[in-house]
Write a structure and sequence with these properties.
This protein is mainly α and 231 residues long. The chain folds into 2 domains: 97 residues, Endonuclease Iii, domain 2; 110 residues, Hypothetical protein, domain 2 (Endonuclease III, domain 1), CATH 1.10.340.30. The chain is elongated. It starts with 5 loop residues before the first helix and ends with a helix. The model has no long low-confidence stretch (mean pLDDT 94).
Length: 231
């Protein structure tokens, strides 16, 4: 069983982080864009790849230069602009509704007021929007507000469980709150990006390249595979 006391988990996470940095490089946290833009970007990223997400966002901003013009538009018009990102009819309604909700608190559609709130309060506020799940909330926290949280996508969830950083019984949704409550004092931005890189290159869902992996010492999946092959 992996160590799930906070101190032992932190020690394990830091050791894994060092090895990932050796393989994929160090990452310095920086803010990508403002919170409202990051929120819309992350909604557009649902069930698509980064390239299509970016094209959808560019099309949206080209067609509707301001957030006010998005709110004023028909959902069908928004859907047409973001069609390349997939699920456009669903995403268009969510975007229009969320922007209208933001306007109720901030007339200029700015989420800058989040800066004064703690991580959990921001998390709960963002999660109150229809269509915003834990990953979207975590992405706004880490990529726009510079907070030290861990978005858990499919790669982070898989790699994290194999390396004993996430309990085996935890869903990705539950793992978000797990990391938020742990509040590990380390560079989670770096760990997040390098775990994704590791999941894409070596620690794949099927046929992972265990022979090339520098993390075998910490990998529960590898240990189980070795035990099975020796039995």
């Amino acid at each position: 069983m992996p160590p799930f006391s906070r101190s032992k988990l932190l020690q394990r996470a830091k050791a894994i982080d060092r090895l990932l940095v050796q393989r994929y490089g160090a990452k310095s946290q920086h803010r990508h864009t403002d919170p409202t833009s990051e929120l819309i970007l992350t909604i557009l990223s649902q069930n698509t790849n980064d390239t299509n997400r970016d094209h959808a966002y560019e099309n949206l901003k080209h067609q509707f230069p301001s957030w006010a013009s998005v709110v004023a538009a028909k959902p069908s018009q928004i859907a047409k602009a973001i069609e390349i990102g997939g699920l456009s009819s669903v995403k268009s309604k969510r975007i229009k509704t969320i922007l209208a909700q933001i306007r109720e608190r901030s007339s200029d559609y700015s989420l800058s007021f989040l800066e004064k709130m703690n991580d959990l309060a921001i998390w709960e506020y963002l999660m109150s929007f229809v269509g915003v799940g834990p990953k979207t909330a975590a992405c706004v926290l880490i990529f726009s507000l510079g907070r030290n949280v861990m978005p858990v996508d499919t790669h982070v969830h898989r790699v994290g469980q194999r390396l004993g950083l996430i309990p085996q019984s935890f869903s990705a949704e539950k793992a978000h709150r797990w990391f938020l409550d742990l509040n590990l004092p380390m560079n989670l931005y770096q760990l997040h990006l390098n775990m994704i890189a590791h999941g894409r290159t070596l620690c794949r869902p099927t046929n992972p390249k265990c022979s090339e992996c520098p993390l075998k010492k910490y990998c529960l999946y590898y240990k189980k595979s070795v035990e099975q092959s020796n039995s």
